[in-house]
């Protein structure tokens, strides 16, 4: 039987274990030669024992500063440990300061309706606002904490409603516009 293991990044050789083999000696020689070529970096990629992983070509040095980034781009700073691990923790996403909301961040569709019709409330809080820091509130929906940058919910119109989208201190409102129907007897 023929067994071999793939080296880790730090390993420079490939361990080849040969148990009693019924394969021909030619196959064993070819395999052994391939292992040697891999160990010296002629094949297997990465050179010097195979491996290597993309990213920066700058060496990581223990004690160097490193950063971690949260949802809205805020960074936390740490240091590189001897294992190569960065100790930085990003600030919590709840620390994201919310940006302004455009007037069309909350839209009612259709814009004009009548009592007992369904409307869709559509929101787009933009990329600088963290969804859990934003709420949508109004009649029949209470207060919804958003989980996505864009979304919608459906509401049955029972009267002249006003809905409010709030992200931090920024706020926009959308009003349900009702069709005036003539009175029938």
User: In the CATH hierarchy, what is the architecture of the largest domain at level 2?
Assistant: Sandwich
Global structural class? mainly beta
Work out the helicity level: under 10%
The CATH topology annotation of the largest domain reads as Immunoglobulin-like
Distance between the termini: 94 Å
Major sheet strand order: 9-8-11-12
- Give the domain tally: 3
Report strand %. 25-35%
* H-E string: EEHEEEEEEEEEEE
With helices defined by DSSP (H or I, 4 residues minimum), what is the helix count? 1
Mean pLDDT: 74
* Strand elements, count: 13
Radius of gyration: 31 Å
CATH class division of the largest domain:
Mainly Beta
Biggest β-sheet: count, sense, barrel? 4 strands, antiparallel
Overall geometry: rod-shaped
């Amino acid at each position: 039987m023929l067994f071999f293991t793939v080296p880790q990044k730090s390993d420079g050789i490939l361990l080849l274990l040969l148990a009693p083999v019924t394969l021909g000696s030619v196959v064993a020689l070819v395999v052994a030669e391939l292992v040697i070529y891999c160990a010296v970096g002629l094949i297997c990629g990465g050179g010097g024992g195979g491996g290597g992983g993309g990213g920066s070509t700058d060496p990581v040095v223990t004690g160097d500063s490193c950063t971690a980034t949260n949802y809205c781009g805020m960074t936390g700073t740490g240091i590189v440990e001897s294992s190569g691990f960065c100790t930085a923790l990003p600030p919590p996403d709840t620390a994201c300061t919310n940006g302004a909301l455009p007037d069309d961040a909350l839209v009612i569709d259709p814009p004009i309706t009548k009592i007992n019709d369904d409307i869709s409330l559509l929101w787009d809080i933009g990329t600088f606002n963290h969804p859990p820091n934003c709420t949508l509130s109004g009649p029949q929906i209470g207060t919804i904490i958003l989980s996505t940058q864009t979304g919608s919910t459906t509401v049955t119109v029972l009267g002249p409603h006003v809905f409010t989208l709030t992200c931090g201190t920024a706020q926009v409102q959308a009003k349900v516009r009702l069709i005036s129907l003539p009175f029938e007897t």
